[in-house]
């Protein structure tokens, strides 16, 4: 597909959203697995199922339909993507990242991404929140491959600071005030869906990763391409220590994410309040 087509697809999606609400979101939040509770903090203006937004791919494997929610969070206009697309579901990176481009076109300047991740740093504990300081893209693919539309962003976007440093530091200060322990670390992204082998976990740790997951990195690359400030929060749902590895139970990952979710929700709400 040509990049001209991409701009047209963004515009069509923006038009559909504008037809439903006049709210101009400043902050965009992509909610990860089991981390959807933030929506309860919002004064909702409208909910738009992804199926009603042109260009948003129809769910193939996604167990539930995604929804774009617009409203106020801590008094600030916000857009929340409840449900994200993953590479392992068979979507292209362009499909996966279109929602980020749409949020940017709607006026968002700060993009917040949450995810559930496996902990590689031996100091981490289950349920910890890791503020993402950097990432390693091991998906073997990049969402910006293909012709570049200069109206959307530069051909070679700088990645010297993919996660906005001051905003991440502010998040850390707010966490201290709220009594929420946070970690900092590097997030490595693989496509999945198979989980990693012990040798892969050892490799990931050796190359400097603190957590591993199957999302976020394509979206952050596109957020940077769009000129957004991006920040990432990982909920450490399981420990991936190669010499003490236990089989991962997806139910357990969901349980830990649900347990840690209120911390994530309080932190993000506190951050948005300071904007
Ligand atoms: N790998 C290992 N553990 C995880 C992951 C992953 O991609 N996501 C959440 N926990």
Explain the overall architecture:
- The chain has 275 residues and is of the alpha/beta class.
- The chain has one domain: Nucleoside phosphorylase domain (Rossmann fold, 3-Layer(aba) Sandwich).
- It is built from six helices and nine strands; from the N terminus they run H-E-E-E-E-H-E-E-H-E-H-E-H-E-H.
- It has helices at residues 3-18, 93-106, 165-178, 198-206, 217-225, 250-273, and strands at 27-31, 43-49, 67-73, 76-82, 110-119, 129-137, 182-189, 211-213, 229-239.
- A five-stranded mixed barrel has the order 5-8-7-6-9.
- Strand 3 (67-73) and strand 4 form a beta hairpin.
- The longest helix is centred in the C-terminal third of the chain and has 24 residues, at 250-273.
- The protein starts with a helix and ends with a helix.
- Bound molecules: hypoxanthine (HPA).
- Hypoxanthine (HPA) binds next to strand 5, strand 8 and strand 9.
């Amino acid at each position: 597909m040509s990049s001209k087509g991409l701009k047209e697809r963004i515009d069509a999606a923006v038009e559909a959203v504008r037809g439903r609400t006049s709210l101009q979101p400043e902050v965009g939040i992509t909610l990860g697995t089991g981390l959807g509770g933030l929506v309860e903090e919002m004064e909702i203006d409208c909910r738009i199922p992804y199926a009603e937004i042109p260009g948003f791919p129809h769910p193939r494997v996604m167990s539930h339909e995604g929804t774009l929610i617009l409203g106020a969070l801590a008094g600030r206009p916000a857009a929340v993507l409840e449900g994200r697309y993953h590479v392992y579901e068979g979507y292209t990176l362009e499909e996966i990242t279109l929602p980020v481009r749409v949020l940017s076109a709607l006026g968002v300047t700060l993009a917040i991404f949450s995810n559930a991740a496996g902990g590689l740093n031996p100091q981490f504990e289950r349920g910890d929140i890791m503020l993402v300081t950097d990432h390693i893209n091991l998906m073997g693919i990049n969402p910006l491959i293909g012709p570049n539309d200069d109206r959307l962003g530069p051909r070679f976007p700088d990645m010297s600071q993919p996660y906005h440093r001051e905003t991440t530091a502010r998040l850390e200060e707010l966490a201290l005030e709220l009594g929420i322990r946070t970690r900092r670390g590097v997030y490595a992204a693989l496509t999945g869906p198979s989980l990693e082998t012990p040798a892969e976990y050892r490799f990931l740790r050796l190359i400097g990763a603190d957590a591993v997951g199957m999302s976020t990195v394509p979206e952050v690359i596109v957020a940077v391409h769009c000129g957004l400030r991006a920040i990432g929060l990982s909920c450490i749902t399981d420990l991936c220590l190669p010499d003490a590895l236990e089989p991962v139970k997806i139910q357990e990952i969901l349980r830990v994410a649900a347990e840690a979710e209120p911390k994530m929700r309080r932190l993000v709400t506190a951050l948005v309040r300071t904007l």
